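tool_call: predict_structure(chain=1)
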Amino acid sequence: MEHFNAASAQELEQALLTCLHSHPWSRRVAEHRPYPDLASLLAASDEAAYDLAWSDLTEALAAEPLPALPPDTYAAAHTALSAAYAAYEARFGHVFVICLDGLAPDEVLDHLLEAIRSRLTNDPEEERAVVADELRHLAKERLIDALLRGAGNCASNH
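tool_result:
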């Protein structure tokens, strides 16, 4: 937390953009320093994420990579997932996002396929709410990872 609180606003905002690529979110989280502890930082991250407009979330979505499968996943699974991602993007106009932290590697594929199939049935407004929640979870997990690693970068595989 010391490094986080002591970093320059510009340096910190750039690092925060790797957690969630939203300028309003990163600016707001950086502006509310100092944080006494991780719980306070995560609460501020949530609050800032809840206040984002859809245009801010769209900015974040444009920078999100697709969820990765474990390296030993068979080729047919990659094909099935690619088709599911394409169907999702055609329906909603943006990349599929989901927070997979805490899942065992052998559960990732089934969880991804189940989630994407389920979310394809959402209407666009329902899906916007799910996307906002997933982005909020991703930002929090990336913040935790960055602070635990002591790094100034929030990027992580989700």
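agent: The chain has eight helices and no strands. Proceeding to next step.
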